[in-house]
């Protein structure tokens, strides 16, 4: 029997041919029983053949049919705060927003000004208001919104390399010598954004795009990500739902608030590089403060929820890591339940 959910978050969504995407019956039931289904749309919709991609590592685009897939999922809102929404420039990003608005799908995390980019998506629940703020620490420099410049709601990260000559001679090229730190002025800006919006809302969720997207480092929760998560909770955020690594990362209880570091992919079609085909869908019931955690698996162009999580090594390891991070999961046949 499927529960009734207030919020349902999915991971990253991309497809070069959206008309060929399908979701399974179990997922359809979960989404149909959710008031608001939310995801990260990891691509602009591009129809203008004259538009050229940015000069970057990977540029993605999709077709208008992606909206039909989002509607099949009962999607009500998407984050555009990611490293791909501006891959074909401002014109494609604006067109994407227009298509979404026409189909009554809310979006956030991109705007014509920095204030608009950081504005929360507001969801109504009777007399309560839930806000979601999208932000990203990964983006091409041209995509960042500053002042009145259109772009994504981004935080600038300073990358430092800490060299100890004796250490690097004995252990050449170790990845752990690299450290990251959010610029203080950007952290202060985020603090004010969260504080000012929290006063108008009953519950505030932060939806960040952060970390590393390439294997094998996408399994690691970076130190700057952990520090940013702690600051977001200290500033007043009530829950964090992260993405970008294209792999499931652990969850954590931070001062009684839940941090999902990465839901992984919901669907990335076709799968690229060494991406995993497992992701998370988290379904939230606000009244009794619980989250049901489902594992979803992409097989070619079909995504479906797993039947029996007791049979998978990956799901049991996820439970073990959650326990180590003070997030206690109750095991059901098809999902984990977490009380927060």
Q: Helicity, in percent? A: 10-25%
Q: Which spans have pLDDT < 50 for at least 5 consecutive residues? A: none
Q: Cα distance, first to last residue?
A: 22 Å
- State the total count of DSSP E strands: 21
Name of the CATH class: Alpha Beta
What summary fits the major beta sheet? 11 strands, mixed
Output mean pLDDT: 94
The CATH superfamily title: Metallo-dependent phosphatases
SSE order, one letter for each helix or strand: EEHEHEHEEHEEEEHEHEHEEEEEEEHEE
Radius of gyration from the CA trace?
A: 19 Å
Q: What percent of residues are in strands?
A: 25-35%
CATH architecture: 4-Layer Sandwich
Shape: globular
In the residues, how many domains can be counted? 1
CATH topology: Purple Acid Phosphatase, chain A, domain 2
Continuous helix count: 8
| Structural class assignment | alpha/beta
Element layout with pairings:
Layout: E1 5-15, E2 22-23, H1 25-32, E3 34-41, H2 66-72, E4 75-79, H3 89-102, E5 106-108, E6 110-111, H4 114-117, E7 121-125, E8 128-136, E9 151-152, E10 157-161, H5 165-170, E11 178-182, H6 184-198, E12 203-209, H7 223-235, E13 239-241, E14 251-254, E15 257-260, E16 265-269, E17 278-285, E18 290-299, E19 302-305, H8 313-324, E20 329-331, E21 336-339
Parallel strand pairs: 1-3, 1-16, 2-19, 3-4, 4-5, 8-12, 12-13, 13-15
Antiparallel strand pairs: 1-17, 6-9, 7-8, 10-11, 14-15, 17-18, 18-19, 18-21, 20-21
Helix pairs in contact: 6-7
């Amino acid at each position: 029997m499927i529960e009734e959910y207030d919020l349902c978050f999915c991971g990253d969504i991309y497809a070069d041919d959206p008309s060929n995407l399908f979701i399974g019956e179990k997922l359809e039931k979960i989404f149909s029983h959710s008031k608001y289904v939310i995801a990260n749309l990891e691509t602009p919709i591009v129809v203008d053949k004259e538009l050229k991609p940015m000069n970057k590592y990977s540029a993605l685009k999709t077709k208008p049919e992606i909206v039909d897939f989002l509607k099949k999922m009962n999607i009500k809102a998407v984050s555009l705060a990611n490293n791909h929404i501006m891959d074909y420039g401002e014109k494609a990003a604006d067109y994407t927003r227009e298509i979404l608005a026409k189909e009554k799908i809310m979006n956030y995390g991109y705007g014509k000004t920095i204030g608009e980019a950081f504005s929360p998506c507001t969801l109504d629940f009777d007399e309560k208001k839930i806000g979601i703020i999208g932000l990203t620490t990964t983006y091409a420099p041209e995509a960042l919104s500053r002042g009145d410049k259109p772009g994504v709601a981004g935080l600038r990260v300073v990358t430092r390399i800490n060299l100890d000559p004796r250490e690097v001679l004995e252990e050449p090229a170790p990845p752990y010598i690299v450290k990251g730190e959010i610029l203080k002025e950007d952290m202060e800006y985020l603090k004010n954004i969260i504080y000012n919006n929290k006063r108008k809302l009953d519950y505030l969720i932060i939806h960040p795009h952060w970390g590393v997207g390439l294997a094998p480092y996408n399994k690691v929760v970076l130190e700057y990500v952990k520090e940013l998560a702690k600051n977001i909770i200290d500033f007043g955020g009530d829950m964090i739902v992260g993405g970008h690594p294209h792999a499931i990362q652990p969850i954590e209880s931070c001062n009684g608030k839940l941090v999902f570091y990465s839901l992984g992919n919901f669907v990335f079609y076709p799968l690229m590089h060494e991406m995993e085909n497992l992701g998370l869908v988290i379904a939230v019931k606000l009244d009794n403060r619980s989250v049901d955690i489902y594992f979803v698996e992409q097989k070619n162009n079909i995504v479906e929820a797993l039947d029996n999580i007791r049979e998978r090594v990956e799901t049991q390891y996820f439970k073990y890591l959650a326990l180590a991070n003070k997030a206690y999961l109750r095991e059901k046949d098809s999902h984990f339940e977490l009380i927060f």
